[in-house]
C-alpha cells in the first residue's frame, strides 16, 4: 500500500545530500586488534589449506582444515538422498519455468518480475555449515539458489 503523504522534495533532497555528505566524509572506525592479531588474521585468510566459515548455530566462526571440510561435504553427497546427473539441468529448468509462468494466471506485472532472465541463470551451489554443537562437527548442507531459475518463484 502506498503512503498518502506526499514528501516535500526540497526537504528530501536536503536530507539525501546530508546523508551522502556524512557517508563520504566519515572515517572507518579504528581497529580494535593489535598488529600481531591483524597479521595472524591475514595469514589465516591467505592460507589455502584452511577454510573459514560461519557456524550453523551460535553466531560463531569456524576455522577448518580444507581437506576435512571437502571430505565431509563429499560424504554428504554419498548419501542416497542425492544422485548424480549427466548434465546441468539449469537451462532446461529456465525454459520450463518461463513457459509455466507465462501460461499461468499470474498478472503480467508479476510475471515480468519472476521470469528468469535468459542465459543468466546459474546452477544452485552447495556448501556446508559446520554444526559445532554436535559430536564430530558434521556439516549442514546448504543449497544456495542465488541466480537459479526457480529462485524468485517460491518467494512470490
Characterize the structure shown.
The chain is an alpha+beta fold and 156 residues long. Helices cover 39% and strands 14% of the residues. It contains five helices and four strands. It has a two-stranded antiparallel sheet. Strands 3-4 form a two-stranded antiparallel ribbon. A hairpin with a 6-residue loop joins strand 1 and strand 2 (61-65). It is flat, with a radius of gyration of 23 Å. The chain starts with 8 loop residues before the first helix and ends in a 12-residue tail after the last strand.
List the helices and strands and how they pair.
Blueprint: H1 9-25, H2 35-46, E1 50-54, E2 61-65, H3 66-77, H4 90-102, H5 108-114, E3 125-130, E4 139-144
Antiparallel strand pairs: 1-2, 3-4
Sheet with most strands? 2 strands, antiparallel
Helix content: 25-40%
Low-confidence stretches: none
What would you call the shape? flat
DSSP, total strands = 4
Indicate the mean pLDDT. Answer: 85
Percent strand: 5-15%
Q: Separation of termini? A: 17 Å
Order of helices and strands: HHEEHHHEE
Strand order of the largest sheet: 1-2
Total number of helices: 5
Structural class: alpha+beta
Radius of gyration: 23 Å
Notable traits:
single chain; 156 residues; alpha+beta; two-stranded antiparallel ribbon
Amino acid at each position: 500500500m502506498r503512503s498518502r503523504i506526499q514528501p516535500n522534495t526540497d526537504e528530501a533532497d536536503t536530507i539525501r545530500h546530508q546523508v551522502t555528505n556524512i557517508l563520504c566524509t566519515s572515517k572507518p572506525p579504528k581497529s580494535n586488534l593489535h598488529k600481531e592479531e591483524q597479521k595472524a588474521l591475514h595469514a589465516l585468510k591467505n592460507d589455502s589449506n584452511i577454510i573459514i566459515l560461519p557456524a550453523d548455530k551460535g553466531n560463531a566462526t569456524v576455522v577448518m582444515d580444507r581437506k576435512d571440510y571437502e571430505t565431509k561435504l563429499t560424504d554428504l553427497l554419498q548419501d542416497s538422498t542425492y544422485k548424480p546427473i549427466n548434465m546441468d539441468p539449469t537451462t532446461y529448468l529456465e525454459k520450463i519455468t518461463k513457459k509455466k509462468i507465462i501460461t499461468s494466471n499470474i498478472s503480467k506485472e508479476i510475471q515480468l518480475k519472476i521470469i528468469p532472465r535468459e542465459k543468466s541463470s546459474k546452477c544452485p551451489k552447495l556448501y556446508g555449515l559446520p554444526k559445532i554443537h554436535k559430536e564430530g562437527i558434521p556439516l549442514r548442507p546448504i543449497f544456495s539458489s542465488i541466480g537459479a531459475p526457480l529462485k524468485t518463484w517460491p518467494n512470490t
